Amino acid sequence: MKFILKIATALCLPAFILSGCRKEEKYPAEPVITFSGVTVYKTIDTLLGNEIVQMNIRILFTDGDGDIGLTDADTVPPFDPGSPYYYNLVTTCYEKKNGSYSEVPEPASFRNYRIPVLPVPANKHGIKGEIQVKKDLYSVTSNPIKYDIYIYDRSLHKSNVISTTDITVQ
């Protein structure tokens, strides 16, 4: 029995020691986002029964202090309605005509989102993951569109701005 314990210790000890040597990933305090992909599909509007076009935009993110997200109670300054920080994920739509892009006006409630608070593991300082943004396309055009996107964390750090690839609705 002592022999088996020694073998188990000899096999497990190096793995335990090496796992403790793994360097923890460190991220900057400002969120960093990367465009991961977009899927466009047709579905049925549950209210009216009409066919609608939706898309799912996937964004990878890191945040060194792990303070991404807002709760429903976050409505006092600086997160009050009407403040630039009320929405913590901001999108701007552009339509491509004759090779150049022009902004497509959309109400803020159609183009901006509130990311919920993301839990940070107890032994970690930063977080990384994927955010998926589901959007209804209300004004479908035959011209390609794209979105510029950025996020804010609770410390009001603004991320970099990313752009989607051109999106064509068939």
Count of discrete alpha- or pi-helical segments spanning 4 or more residues: 2
Shape: globular
Low-confidence stretches: 1-20
Portion of residues in helices?
A: 10-25%
Largest sheet: 5 strands, antiparallel
Give the terminus-to-terminus CA distance. Answer: 69 Å
- Write down the Rg: 22 Å
Oligomeric organization of the protein chains: single chain
Strand and helix order: HEEEEHEEEE
Classify the secondary structure makeup into a structural class: mainly beta
Q: How much of the sequence is in beta strands?
A: 35-45%
Q: Overall pLDDT, averaged?
A: 84
Integer count of domains: 1
Notes on the protein architecture:
With 170 residues, this protein is mostly beta strands. It has one domain (26-163). Helix content is 14%, strand content 36%. The chain is built from two helices and eight strands, in the order H-E-E-E-E-H-E-E-E-E. Strand 1 and strand 2 (51-63) form a beta hairpin. The longest helix has 19 residues, at 2-20. It is globular and about 50 Å long. The model is unreliable at 1-20 (pLDDT under 50).
Output the keywords:
single chain; three-stranded antiparallel sheet; mainly beta; 2 helices; 170 residues; five-stranded antiparallel sheet; disordered N terminus; 8 strands; globular
Secondary structure elements and pairings:
Layout: H1 2-20, E1 32-44, E2 51-63, E3 89-97, E4 100-104, H2 108-111, E5 112-113, E6 127-137, E7 145-151, E8 162-163
Quick recap:
This protein has one domain.
